[in-house]
Amino acid sequence: MMNINFNSDDEDNPIHAALKKFLIDCQVQDLKEAGKTEEAEQLALKNVEQDLSAIEQEQLASGSNDENYTPDTVPEQCVSKTFDNYADNFDQHLTKQLNYAVPLIIQEMVSKFTEGRFKRLLDLGCGTGLCTEVIGDLVLHKTGVDLSEGMLEKADQKSLYDDLYLNDLTEFLQNDWDERWDLIISGDTFIYLGALEEAVAGLAKNIELNGKVIFTTETAADEAFSEKPYVMSNRGRFAHSADYLRKVLADNDFTLIELDEITPRFEDGKPVLGLVVVAQYNGK
């Protein structure tokens, strides 16, 4: 696989700070489970210093004075570097500590709207392969794409995919591939994209006629979207409004089949607000 080199400036990126904070939260939980309470408390206290919201930090970095300012995406270097560091403990943290439900939610949607088996699966932001693991029997050929080399190495060890690509999903979708996919899934990847127009246009470019797209994202109360149809949380992730998802899909010739509220995970003992989307491509 390719090597990724990062500039030292990445450490100063405000959104990277939010993602780094998430990693420290995971480490705190590990220490608690190991009975190292004092070390956990010290690390948690240190983490409080990074609790300035990602939006406020991004405002400072950009020079924006607009309190409603929201960036359009999380820089790919931030995502790849964070998840490279997270790869070794990714599966355990999500499933055991955060009650991560996205793979089973996607499995339910695939089973609900499947007649027979799919020929070709594209798993965008595949990570270690948690989603493909639970639907693999329903697909003949599987392709995974992720920004994190560490995550792809873990996925490769599971022998889940026929092809793995180290790439940003929007860049990947701009390529002219020899074949299209009849099933595209993306579990908790659009939460690192604010504006979805380019990504959804890429989905339309790469999916077969009548093919299915299934993805999850996070959402928030309606009043959060008064200025923009997406907002960033202090965890460095985006939430999207349901109306925005409907519009961007319709603009790219997708018919919405299902849009349901979900709880993708729990954080600090509280449910995270999420959405699962199932759409069918009816374009050219």
How would you portray this structure in words?
The chain is of the alpha/beta class and 284 residues long. The protein has two domains: 8-73; 102-281, Rossmann fold (3-Layer(aba) Sandwich). 39% of the residues lie in helices and 23% in strands. It has eleven helices and eleven strands. The strands form three sheets. A seven-stranded mixed beta sheet has the order 3-2-1-4-5-11-8, sandwiched between helices. Strands 6-7 form a two-stranded antiparallel sheet. A two-stranded antiparallel ribbon has the order 9-10. A hairpin with a 2-residue loop joins strand 9 (266-267) and strand 10. The chain is globular and about 60 Å long.
Précis, in short:
By secondary structure, the protein is of the alpha/beta class. Helix content is 39%, strand content 23%.
CATH architecture assignment of the largest domain:
3-Layer(aba) Sandwich
Low-pLDDT segments: 1-19, 45-67, 83-87
CATH class annotation of the largest domain? Alpha Beta
Rg (CA only) = 19 Å
* Secondary-structure content class: alpha/beta
Helicity range of the residues? 25-40%
First and last CA, distance = 34 Å
Q: How many discrete domains?
A: 2
Number of distinct beta strands = 11
Count of DSSP H/I helices: 11
- What is CATH's topology name of the largest domain? Rossmann fold
CATH superfamily of the largest domain: Vaccinia Virus protein VP39
Q: Which descriptors apply to this entry?
A:
11 helices, two-stranded antiparallel ribbon, Rossmann fold, 284 residues, 2 domains, alpha/beta, 7-stranded mixed β-sheet, single chain, 11 strands
